[in-house]
Amino acid sequence: PCYVCVFEQNPRPAGALIGSAYQIGMSRMRFCTNPAAPQVNPTAEPPDVNRRTAMRVTTYILAGSVLLSAMGCSSTPSNTPREAAKLQWDEARAWVLLSIAKDQYANGNLDKCKETLYSAMRMDPTNPQLHLLSAKLSIEKSELERAEQSLDTVRKLDPKNAEADYLSGVIYQRWQRPETSLTYYTSACDKAPAELAYLMARAEMLVVLNHQDQALQLLEAKGKYFEHSGTIRAEVGLLMAHAGRHDEAIDMLRQAT
Fold this sequence. Notes:
Elements: H1 3-9, H2 21-28, H3 48-72, H4 81-106, H5 110-123, H6 128-140, H7 144-157, H8 162-174, H9 178-191, H10 196-208, H11 212-222, H12 230-242, H13 246-256
Helix pairs in contact: 4-5, 4-6, 5-6, 6-7, 6-8, 7-8, 8-9, 9-10, 10-11, 11-12, 12-13
């Protein structure tokens, strides 16, 4: 009988071919009516070529199943060019709205600033600068808990952002938690050592916690980086006076003026 006839006349699901090519052929031999089919002894083993064909079919089916599983089980297909272009466009528009919101914030138009920020965040919720400005806006409105939530988001999106830590220090200072405030001010100084405001806030918290000596050491060590700053000289002079270093304090206060 012809094994091609067997498979053509008796189509079966692909899975049924696995391990059954030989059994199908042997069970259907007597029904083959193809005159061109060779006459084979029904009790004889099928030729080796048919066994190899069956094995190839099995191999192809298994390989195809693995490939389809790898390709078809992905739940997050890559963005199409059109989707990627829209994403870039939304990010660019969000930056433009951020610039507008900053101007509105600087001019005291807080309500319009809030509306602009919300529009920008809908376009690009992963922009840390949007959440940073949102935190500043909340601080201005005394919504400190909301501000701190926004700052936590900034730290997740941009762990190196020093201003977020500085603003958290301001919030915890208002909450009268100087230890936590000092921790944030210190972190802000470490991330942005050239920012005088962060340094002065850290020194102030040290003084609040009665660590005047540490505050003086900190400012003296950093003084060479801010040699043209009268603010730091005035603070150093006051701390020197508190430490009993009166002559040095007078000289430092003169330099500050």
